[in-house]
Amino acid sequence: MKENSAMAPFKSKDFTVIWSATVISTIGLRMHEVGAAWLMTTMTDDPFIVALVQAVTTLPIFLFALLAGAIADVSSKRRMLLVVNIIMAVIATMLAVLIYLNAMTPYLLLLFIFLIGTCAAFTAPPKQAINPLLVPKEDLQSAIAMNSIGFNISRSIGPGIAGILIVVLGPESPFLINALSFIAIIWAFLWWKPKQASKETTKEAIPGAIKAGLRYARYSQPLRATLWRAFAFFISASGFWALLPIFVKTEMQAGADVYGLLIAAIGLGAVIGAFLLPKVKRKFSSDQITWIAAVFIIGTMMMSAFPVNNTLLSYLLPNLPVDEILAMFGSIFFGISWIWTLSTFSVSAQSALPDWVRARGLAIYLMVFFGSMSLGSVIWGAIASQMGIKTALIIASATLTLGMILSRKQKLNLGEAIDLAPSEHWAEPNILVDSDQDKSLLNERSPVMVIIEYKIEGSDEEEFLALMCQLRLARQQYGAYGWEVLQQSDQADIFVECFFDVSWVHHLRHRERLAGKDYALEQQIHNLHQGDTPPEVKHFLGPKRMPCQSSARN
Fold it and tell me: 24, 27, 56, 314: which is closest to 183 by C-alpha?
């Protein structure tokens, strides 16, 4: 086995066990999704209600992923995954029992779908963030690719089995198997004993962690570009997912077995696409790959809206269901396109995130992804109810084209050229404390002001100020506020940079989170400094006791 081969992650026993258990569990979840979508079509013919299945499945990610990412970043990811999967197994079992007792209603089904989706929202960020704990750094990209392949293997197997089981054993069967499938993933996380990750200066509180994640996303251009591109794509592409169940039942006049086979075909296409993707990446840029995928998806939706004249095919193949065969080929191409886009956006988001905020950043990406899917599902379901399924697919194709055009200037994978590894280039700050009590209260001292003095020649002033504008965004990424650059009134070559951190512990976190990109930028600025010594740095803390000032929270 080559060191950097696609199969290299399987050299790690931890990765192999968790990957295998995840595939088994995901097969159950895919069976649950197909069973829920089809069960809804047996209880109502309203496209809007059917489309709500997709919306309610994805909405919890939008609502809870950031909270889940914050919890994952400041606590044990293993414990979190174990507890949430146990809760999900209990909910899945209750759902199977209610369906078996014929006690299910459309709105009760939506409630259970929402609950399971909520649990999935709390597992998604830590699942993505544990990859560096399972494999060495050089195998990380291959591990992400194998996780994608495993997911789509599950998508290929689960839906087809679900469709057959619904016909043969009844509507409750896929839900029961989903409940049993959690045994594998629960056992895997009980077995896994990861190494303890290094801790920051103090444990960050959940509200502060959420705020830090949102702040980083706001000031990270590579992540912002990825989020805009993802939203523009998925809000329209979701139309195919949302309308497929009702399309199969009303337009194709087919049953759950055909719907399951089409979902399986999408999964098969995704597996094929995952293996083709390395070759495609060698020939096309990430931005070009998303355009190619968009063209394929638009073609699939338009083919569904305007079925080709298959009279000749029916004559040549009189004993075969031509409509279903064409739909399967279209689904395969949709799956190829979907995995190309999903993988490209995911890698772009991963490359924009340092380790300290990885779960939160990925959670924000998942919020945009699933939020777009939820909003799109509601929109296309409402349009289909009023104007017809085919019209909704045509409009979705048009808006996907428009979204790709409007977001074309937001480039992907900008983070690959940025060094996000910890730099630790700030010196240990010196601070005097008079007693053990003062030392214990040091972290609460608030606010903290940092002043840095530079000596810049007039010929370098324009370049210096341009670099300082970049530095402002870098400081703000880590929570600094009140940032200013001032010029001394009686000595024009003296400039002072000033910014605040909320408290001393926030300043220490700011120091720990600095990356190589920050060091490189500061070196450019320091090279313009004309003093005999480096720029002078001074720290000022809020008074020990200030009756009119409340302590800052961590």
Answer: 24
Radius of gyration over every alpha carbon of the chain, rounded to an integer in angstroms: 27
The residue with tokens 């990412």 is 69
Packing angle, helices 173-191 and 140-168, rounded to 10? 150
Average pLDDT on 17-29 reads 91
Q: What is the 3-state secondary structure of 448-499?
A: EEEEEEEEECHHHHHHHHHHHHHHHHHHHHCCCEEEEEEECCCCCCEEEEEE
Q: How far from chain centre, in Å, is Cα 420? A: 18
pTM greater than 0.85:
no
Return d(Cα 237, Cα 373) in angstroms, integer: 8
**The token pair that represents 193 in the structure block:** 């004993």
Phi, psi of 460 (to 5 degrees): -100, 0
Helices 358-387 and 106-129 sit at what angle, rounded to 10 degrees?
150
* Nearest one of 425, 400, 413 to 334, comparing CA atoms: 400
Element (H or E) spanning 539, and its range?
strand 536-541
- Residue 414's CB: how many other CB atoms inside 10 A? 18
For residue 22, give both structure tokens. Answer: 């995840």
CA dihedral 32, 33, 35, 38 (to 10 degrees): 170
- Confidence at residue 275, expressed as pLDDT on a 0 to 100 scale: 78
For the sheet containing 536-541, what is the strand order? 481-487, 494-501, 448-455, 536-541
d(CA 451, CA 47): 61
Tens of pLDDT, residue by residue over 102-138, are: 888 888 999 999 999 899 889 988 887 787 778 876 6
Q: Which phi-psi region, left, alpha or beta, contains residue 360 (left: φ > 0; alpha: ψ -120 to 50)?
A: alpha
Within 10 Å of residue 459's Cβ, how many Cβ atoms? 8
CB neighbour list of residue 317: distance below 8 Å, 6 or more residues apart: none
DSSP state of 355: G
Structure-token match 């020649």, residue found = 457
Paired tokens of 276: 């083709």
Q: What are the tens digits of pLDDT across the range 354-370?
A: 888 888 898 899 889 88
Angle, alpha carbons 316-318-324 (nearest 5°): 100
Tell me how far apart the alpha carbons of residues 290 and 443 are, in angstroms, rounded to a whole number: 47
Asked if 453 and 495 count as a contact pair (C-beta separation under 8 A), the reply is yes
Beta carbons of 173 and 164 less than 8 angstroms apart: no
What secondary structure letter does DSSP report for 441?
T
Strand partners, 357: none
Dump pLDDT digits (tens) for 142-169.
677 678 778 767 766 777 787 778 778 8
Note the helical H segments in 311-357: 311-316, 322-351
The alpha carbon dihedral of 114, 75, 361, 134 has a sign of negative
How do strand 494-501 and strand 448-455 relate by DSSP bridges?
A: antiparallel
The pair of three-digit structure tokens given for residue 279, joined into one six-digit string: 């070759």
C-alpha–C-alpha distance, residues 474 and 467, integer Å: 11
